[in-house]
Write a structure and sequence with these properties.
Layout lengths: L1 H16 L20 H4 L17 H5 L19 H10 L3 H4 L8 H8 L29 H13 L3 H11 L8 H28 L5 H7 L8 H26 L4 H17 L6 H19 L2 H5 L1
Length: 307
């Protein structure tokens, strides 16, 4: 029972701390065995040799490559010095500007080691090691002699485009001379093949209901025409506005504008005669009421004269 309780307690602790541990994402083309398992670092990995990540803590140090374009001595700060080193630096600063001024010259021993591929983590400069006054870093854009030789050989092996075309042409056993007629035939054939391919694609898209608005319009333009009811509704708006305007003008003119109101009513009547087929019962009743009001206004000025 004690062993079971200890296992349960250990499992509970692992479950609590497992939340903060996540495995790193493996970039494409990278071997997972070159990455240390995060659970193994925390002592929680239970997969053992079946784990796809490495359980060797020295993998990162083995895989890290030295940078030959930066001088490691430039990154040293006072935080890494002890009292003896600090006193030594203070003493050397007195004569530094007179004897050992900083230089940008690259150390020849460093260049030789890089060219011979002897430079590494444990390489020591023969010119005093870390006390060497010259730079232990390649300048930006520097090309090694070995790389330069390979580049020159590659450039010498390259041939121009014209030579490549001539070589390919000489390899062909039989060829047809190109003329304008043959070119136009080839172009027409390619255009027809393209149209057939596009038609097949449009048919497939129409079958799956994935056509765009432009494709729908090109396939059937009648789908984008307003129906008859929409046209009639738009056509009926103008006569109603004209009648309303005529009523307002009649009220504003009063008795003095009776003749003009009668003329307007005659114009409306003439215009409405052309559209009788399109008027409904409500519009006919409204037109009749407007005509009756106009006739009453015409008779009112004549009554006092007759009496």
């Amino acid at each position: 029972k004690k062993k079971e309780e200890e296992k349960a307690r250990e499992k509970e602790l692992n479950d609590l701390f497992k939340i903060a541990v996540t495995q790193p994402k493996v970039p494409p083309g990278v071997d997972p065995k070159s990455i240390v398992c995060e659970f193994f670092k925390a002592g929680q990995c239970t997969k053992g040799f079946k784990c796809k990540f490495s359980h060797d803590l020295n993998v990162q140090r083995k895989g890290e490559k030295i940078d030959i374009y930066s001088d490691k001595r430039d990154q040293e700060t006072m935080e890494d010095w002890d009292q003896e080193t600090l006193e030594k630096v203070v003493e050397s600063k007195k004569t530094e500007y007179n004897q050992n001024k900083p230089t940008e010259i690259v150390c020849k021993h460093f260049l030789e080691a890089v060219e011979k591929k002897q430079y590494g983590w444990f390489w020591v400069c023969p010119n005093g090691g870390k006390d060497c006054h010259y730079r232990h870093a390649l300048p930006p854009g520097y090309v090694l002699k070995s790389q330069m030789k390979a580049l020159l050989e590659e450039e010498s092996e390259k041939i121009t485009i014209e030579e490549e075309i001539e070589n390919q042409r000489s390899k062909t056993s039989s060829s047809t001379p190109m003329t304008t007629e043959l070119f136009m035939q080839w172009k027409t054939k390619k255009m027809e093949e393209r149209e057939v391919s596009l038609a097949a694609q449009r048919a497939d898209r129409a079958k799956n209901d994935r056509m765009s608005g432009r494709e729908l319009f090109l396939s059937d333009a009648s789908l984008f025409v307003d129906d008859a009811e929409a046209y009639e509704a738009y056509h009926r708006e103008e006569p109603e506005d004209t009648e309303q305007k005529g009523k307002d003008d009649t009220k504003a003119a009063g008795p003095s504008g009776t003749a003009s109101a009668a003329a307007d009513s005659e114009d409306i009547l003439l215009d409405d005669d052309d559209d009788d087929d399109e008027l409904d019962m409500d519009e006919l009743n409204e037109l009749e009421a407007s005509l009756s009001r106009t006739s009453i206004q015409i008779q009112e000025p004549g009554n006092p004269g007759s009496s």
